[in-house]
Amino acid sequence: MGQGDRIRTFIHGFDDKLGGGIPEGHIVLLAGEPGTMKSTIAFNMIYQNALRDGRPGTYISLEQGRDNLTRHLDQMSLSPRDVETKVSIVDLGMIRRNLDGMADRTWLEIFKMYAMNLKRSLNYDILVVDSLPVLELMSRFENPREDLFQLFEWIRDLKATTILISEMKPASEDFGKNGEEYLSDGIIHTKMERVDDANIQRRIRCVKLRGTNHSPNYYTLIFQSGILQATRIIAE
Asked: Is the model's pTM score more than 0.85?
């Protein structure tokens, strides 16, 4: 695959470890414990691709309200206003509460409706869902493994590179309970690592990425002056 067939994460030093980025059309789990900057990593990817490469993106939030998310992103020097013509942020919870006649629809139905409508209007290249466990919980899956398989197939038909954010418990290596780790094309794992009595480091690694000769190693994840960077871990 050539460079043009990939969507860059814009984490400096990390795309090189992914053969240039995430292959177009892949569904990738971005999984990690709380506080490991998953939302920032995902929006940074949308933000930088829109700003630098003109790629449209959509960020669908099921937990965090749009105002809170926007304030957080402003603090991270990733203001949605910079890319408002190319990027749509959808607060699915607020939409479900405010739309007449929507109360009897499942979250999954509303999610699909908005994802499809925005694909038609914005034709986004990148879709972020924050988060997959909440979507699964609120969708009232009767047969979770089969229903999740059908959801992944539906997402593939959107023809977008999709980042599914997933919460993990600290020190866990369990990336999903309904086969998410097998259905996804890639897994990026973030975690907190205690390096001594006083210091904690954020770390990131690519667990799998189909069609890519990638590094499986952990790297230190640094965020400074609006820039995400993955650096080699230096042993003490």
From this structure: yes
